[in-house]
Amino acid sequence: MSTIDKAAGGVANFADDSVGASKVVNGFARKIFPDHWSFMLGEITLYSFVILLLTGTFLTFFYEPSAAETTYYGQYIPLYGQHVSEAYESSLRISFDVRGGLLMRQIHHWAALVFVAATIVHMARVFFTGAFRKPREVNWVIGSILAILAVFEGFTGYSLPDDLLSGTGIRIAQAIILAVPVVGSYISFFLFGGEFPGTDFIPRFFTIHILLLPAIILALIAVHLMLVVVHKHTQYPGPGRTEDNVVGFQLFPVYMAKAGGFFFIVFGVIAALGALVQINAIWAYGAYDPSPVTAGSQPDWYMGWLDGAVRLMPGWFEFTLWGFTFSMNIFIPTTVVILLTMGIMVLYPWIEQAATGDRREHHLLDRPRNQPTRTGLGVMALTFYVLLWISGGNDIIAHMLNLSINDITRSLRVLVFALPALAFVVTKRICLGLQRKDREKALHGRETGRIVRLPHGEFIEVHAPLTDLERWTLVQHDNLRPMEIEDRVDAGNPDTLFGKVQRRLSRFYFEDRVEPVTPAELAASHHDHHGELEQAHADELDRADHPAIGTSQTTHG
């Protein structure tokens, strides 16, 4: 045995004797994780956060979190000799004077965008497949908090270079804070250390960005992963998969090898973006000056929807009462929209639980088509977000397409209410149509496009039988019906307000539905299908033996 092996064995024995590490490691290494590409979305979130920590640590060695004035004497000639803040000067120095500094800045920025995007897409996957149901409600709440923290973490980091674009964003954020009734001005003075812009906001944003928010995010990710292990991983329906087991690979060595390789793929893609695609060229914007107005400035995509909401809100919704100015035209589309969005996200598992009355544990995921109301609500929310995001660039759209910005704004004010409702109805109809198609396929098999004429003149299409796995996938979902309060022991009291709301909510979710195939229908269809195939096969044999008797027509679709 080599010296290294002896040293490693000694460390392992010490850890086992001290904290019982072998039991923990052995149990954790044998944890089973299912294999599906959509589960990688959460891993992209984790890996991009790791990349943010690594690149952010590098940047902190050279960044100066100070708004004090200095003179720039770096390599970028157009700004040589300009009076700028130390934060902006250090950002330029990182970009042009530090070896690899610009690459690190751009990798950091791209990783931040990927982190927020992966978080939101991962949340969407969890929502549409029902992975938030019992016992994972707490994990859903943690994910919702992580999503909003990721947005604020991105905004604080985006504001640190103190360039003209980020300064415009900070000014908008200060306006949002000021719009909070009664206490807004006090919060603004506390955050900025006096009148805007002040000199305190950069070191405070820096502390929030590198210490406070990352610590909270890291702690929540740790709790999130711990709950994944405790509750076991969800999985898609399939052979041998039940609510009581997990079919997949052990964490070690198979899953660890795959996850490690995927980490380097994510790192490589983000590094390639940082090396080849320029982003946040702060030298082109110049240092922040509160006096000019930056025309055409656009925030990062994850903040653009709030900017769009402000642009759509009529400006007349502002009044003075009891000596205070209430700027509802700013407060409602920002603070109220954020609070409502977060409230609905956090409470949704319990909202759906009230509609179904289902308090069972669920470890098998739903097909989105089998939950048409939930899927419709998700698409409605995404449509609402996209419309607000588009309205955040209404000035750019008007300029590029030579249209009236007023006409664009008025149209979006109508669409932001009408289009999400239309998206809900259309999505729900599509899901119900897909369910009917699945029902037809489960009963009669897959269409082949082959038309056969029987001896008595009838034309039939020969359907190919499904495999047991294909048929099981189409019929395995629960039969969800509107809750009948009198018949459900887990329903609320029908005489209370909650009971009445629960019954109406249940009707909203499940009144429009397609009944899944029953075992009796499946057995009858299976018998009829075999008779049909035998008749068609006998007819083909008869024509082969007597080619002059009868005719047949075959088409291929």
From TrEMBL:
Alphabetical keyword list: Membrane, Transmembrane, Transmembrane helix
The keyword Transmembrane is assigned to this record: yes
Pfam families (UniProt xref): Cytochrom_B_N_2
Cofactor(s) it depends on: heme
Bilayer-crossing regions: 44-63, 107-128, 140-160, 172-193, 205-230, 261-283, 330-351, 372-392, 412-431
EC number: 7.1.1.8
Domain Cytochrome b/b6 N-terminal region profile: 11-237
InterPro entries reported for this sequence: Cyt_b/b6_N, Cytb/b6-like_sf, Di-haem_cyt_TM
Main EC class the enzyme belongs to: translocase
Catalytic activity: a quinol + 2 Fe(III)-[cytochrome c](out) = a quinone + 2 Fe(II)-[cytochrome c](out) + 2 H(+)(out)
UniProt-listed PROSITE patterns: CYTB_NTER
Name used for this protein in its record: Cytochrome bc1 complex cytochrome b subunit
Organism: Kineococcus halophytocola
Highest classification ranks of the organism: Bacteria, Bacillati, Actinomycetota, Actinomycetes, Kineosporiales
